[in-house]
Amino acid sequence: MLQALTLLLVCQLLGETLVRLLSLGIPGPLVGMGLLLVFLAYKGGPDQGLNEVSDGILRNLSLLFVPAAVGVIQQLGLIQDQWLALGLAIIGSTLLTMLVTVGVFLGVARLMQARA
């Protein structure tokens, strides 16, 4: 169990390190997750310890939203001042995400039909 938690933290640390060294414009934990994916693909999948640790983290995932909620409360004045821009950005990005998702789904469906 300690080895699995260490693996997760080392992957995140390596991701953060690579992002800072290479001045990448993406979050370090995302790079770390990619490194973990490569490692697990090479290894053949997660072991029992990693499954247990990840299940424990997922069971307590709601605790990770507390800092974000505190940040929203701390910036409430800014949010009130910029509510229109924030609202348009949220609605626009949601619509764009939905359109891209539909496009990818249709593209994959066509590829799957072409193979059959």
UniProtKB/TrEMBL annotation:
InterPro entries (alphabetical): LrgA/CidA
Keywords: Cell membrane, Membrane, Transmembrane, Transmembrane helix
Major subcellular location class: membrane
Subcellular location: Cell membrane
Superkingdom to which the source organism belongs: Bacteria
Keyword Transmembrane helix appears in the UniProt entry: yes
Topology versus the membrane: Multi-pass membrane protein
Pfam family, one: LrgA
Cellular component terms per the entry's GO annotation: plasma membrane
Membrane-spanning ranges: 25-45, 57-77, 83-109
Protein name, per record: Holin-like protein
Species in which this protein is naturally found: Ectothiorhodosinus mongolicus
Classification lineage: Bacteria, Pseudomonadati, Pseudomonadota, Gammaproteobacteria, Chromatiales
